[in-house]
Amino acid sequence: MGGALAAGVLATTVLCGGSPAGADPVALPTTATEAVQRMIDLSRQSDQLNQQALGVQEDLDAKLGLQHDADAKLAEATTLVNQARDEVRKYQPIIDRTAIAAYQGARTNRLFAVLVSDSPQQLLDQMSTLDVLTAQTSAQLDLYKKATDAADAAEHLARRAADEARSAADKAEAVRADLERKRSDLGGAIAQVVGAWSSLSAKDKSALAGSPFPPGFDRDTLLQGLVPGSGTSALAAGLTRIGDPYVWGATGPHQFDCSGLVQWAFKQVGKSVPRTSSAQASYGTPVAQKDLQPGDVVFFYSDISHVGIYAGNGLMVHASTFGVPVAVAPISTTPYHSARRY
Fold first, then answer.
1. pLDDT surpassing 80 at residue 59
2. Topology match between the domains 50-198 and 210-341
3. Domain boundaries, the chain
4. Residue 156 annotated among the catalytic residues of the structure
5. Of the residues 16, 156, 254, 306, which is catalytic?
6. pLDDT digits over 286-322, tens only?
7. Which of 68, 156, 258, 337 is catalytic?
């Protein structure tokens, strides 16, 4: 048991920022209690990686959503550019004819009409015709300018949309690469945890799993007078999962990680809460530790990598870690961070 467990401990310690190569080696466990504690430490590190990987997955989903929106804007902008260019092409022949006529010396002003008219009536007719032609040409030129301006504006929007799409794609790719690293780290850590757990004796495994309820815990009394749809209802749902196994990344209904249990329990009472413990710590309203009530959500560790549902009297229901089924346990056994009320 000692050799396999120590190898896993050493590998995970280096992986999670512990002693680098060349430092003092990690001591082998010398007692069953120490072996179980090493197992707990390994599981704790894996739980951290699990929450980190889940958080990166959420970030990737958000980035992919932004990329999709940016691509849609680019497609829309490209359509507008094509429509604007078609409009410009519609007026181009008129503009070309006007330019050619001017280049060839066409006479279209009133003085020329006076000089070539043989009679007052002819002068009036020619001037009227010139007014009509001038008005038509001016209107066509205005339309052409509007079409050209619209095309320029559409092309500017398209260039900006293309830049946004490229930026969104680059950010999504960076997050995707980070997610792959986190998943790889988690996979390695899980293998070490499972290996260490397999090396424990049946007695040590039983000691690690512990009791599902602390002495004197009365579930029925605790749940008397619960309010449907409230935190106490979510607590009641969580208590129905006592004894279910802890599995990294699981969200129920028969196996859970810590944040997966909280999300599942509140889903049973019609509340949609975030997936990760860190995101859950920003949901609802903050509650001081002295004001905790059954059904409040409690968070642990400085990186908020563990979460449970408060069950009153300093207890919580939580999915602890690998090898420990969903259970009711004191919140004092884990470094307290904060609490929220959903």
1. yes
2. no
3. 50-198, 210-341
4. no
5. 306
6. 999 999 999 999 999 999 999 999 999 999 999 999 9
7. 258
Task: For the chain, report the end-to-end CA distance as a whole number of angstroms.
Answer: 44
CB contact set of 242 (below 8 Å; sequence gap of 6+) = 212, 213, 317, 325, 326, 327, 328
What integer is the mean pLDDT of 45-67?
Answer: 83
pLDDT at 9: 32
Q: Higher-confidence residue: 7 or 47?
A: 47
**Residue 318 annotated as catalytic:** yes
27 and 5 in contact (C-beta within 8 Å)? no
**50-198: CATH number:** 1.10.287
Amino acid occupying residue 73 = K
- Catalytic residue, chosen from 156, 254, 318, 337, is 318
- Please indicate whether residue 337 is annotated as part of the active site: no
Write the CATH number of the domain with boundaries 210-341. 3.90.1720.10
Tokens 């997955």, residue located: 57
CA dihedral 307, 331, 205, 241 (to 10 degrees): -60
Q: What is the pTM of this model?
A: 0.61
